[in-house]
């Protein structure tokens, strides 16, 4: 995400790695259309530049959308049921409510002003159309840009057909005119990038014009052709393009469709690769998203690749087949979607697709197994970040297992090994989706199914689906006992005790949980020990045995520190804070909850931060700070609405008692006003308020910005604060509306703001000061 991951980010658009050439008219028209429609579809064939145009337009509109501009890349997604999951993931919405995810998304965006870019919709048209209508109806401040080879065909959609780049009408026109056209400019820039010594000369203009006209002005085709200038002159390049396209068209170039032009260029690029590079290209098409060198060597190496894989990947990068991306200190690679689809066709034709997809699946099964084994340890946060990066390919591995009946057990094993990841990443709906489908395909009453049922029960509990949890955990325990598997019996007992606790049957839950703790200790399962101690401490707290709850909680914290994990420790801090609050040790209670928030911050766990913030609200109320208590409860409520979660059901009664006390102290109007103030905090502001830190929401340098604004800019900032529109400001100052718009852009840049609302708030604060 751009900006703070915990604050109000400006979006998740990727950084541009190459220059964006031309398209001035198309960008201007798309921006104009977005002022008239809330759903703009950029349509056209592969390689015409729909994605690049959409991202450029979105990037230029960042300041118009205070709540960000968000890219949802749908190319790696095969299952239309996961479309809401992909959108939620892109928007940073963690789902822990148990409600249908479209409902969670509607609630999240209802009061937002944001732009969503749905990229590569063509293989999910019906699902994209349905979700677009659902979200746009729910949120008047939301607009969408879709890129697709076909329109979505819904009411209110405006379709803009993306044309090829502008080309010279006459190759023999004056060289200045030819070289100024978009297609020739792109050819020149990409040629210079591929061959640093290359310079497009005026005498080259007619040849360059004929090259781009032969390629129909398709950006991807031009970029693939430009790379060949490392070995060819412009004249040789034109001759070979004419040969390739003439052969494809049966000697008749004039009627060649653009999509066949691009296909011919990709065919030619493929033919120019060495046999080993072609093999690697085909094999790389099994990746749904980006990959690193180690993963590539393990999945794609072996027979058929005579050279070092790293040398081959460098060759494909040089030929513009593979894109190189920087991810922090690491380098990853990816194929453009059109190139990936071509490689997948070749892989299928080679008869090795199933073998490569199984190797891909095996790698990600190994990755999931390592995460499961190492999660409760010092590399927990590294694993969390790694799996966020690999998420799309985990889906691809699970898709493979679903598509092959004999792979269901393996798929179910992978989904179960990712249990903690589904929870930590807020992907509970997706985790439950995979487990449910794979359980349906694996009815055998064996250890794999027992583990699947246990995972289904735990994910349902985290998802606040008590009914689903009870059914799954009951069957899991019966099967585990029948199999006499100590590990599965321990986990199914824990799940049963957890479900019983959330069902408010505390006296029945405690012995189940005590049994689970003993079994986890016997099996030496670190994660099971921590989770069972945490849940048992919760139960003892509600039963009134606070001293024992403290002992168990502290034991678990000590154990957590000894193995170097922090995810479960954050939840333990939450429980210990509640116990300390109940015992009247308010200072220690607040310390526990703040420590929990600090740990959860690293995982961007908004739902967990909400739980800790609510308890801090209870503590503030007990400290005699009712306004702060109400604000913290409001902040927690806002976080839960954004993440689709809520206070855990076994604590609802405690929360209602605190709310009643605060209403009695502040009065209904006072409580409602303070609560509403809390709901207006961003997640970053809520965290800073909970920790009693100075908020980081004020842009750096804004406090000095008034010194840098011109007299006219200060005047316009004041009128913005009065609520005037640009048109009204222009009339008031007797200047053009365009001049006002320019001044507003300068004000936003100098202040580091993204919206007029921020300008108004800043100016009001400065005037008060």
Automatic annotation (TrEMBL):
One Pfam family from the record: GerE
GO biological process assignments: regulation of DNA-templated transcription
Recorded superkingdom: Bacteria
CDD domains per the UniProt record, alphabetical: LuxR_C_like (cd06170)
Molecular function via GO: DNA binding
HTH luxR-type domain span: 702-767
UniProt-listed InterPro entries: HTH_77, P-loop_NTPase, Sig_transdc_resp-reg_C-effctor, TPR-like_helical_dom_sf, Tscrpt_reg_LuxR_C, WH-like_DNA-bd_sf
Protein name per Swiss-Prot or TrEMBL: LuxR family transcriptional regulator
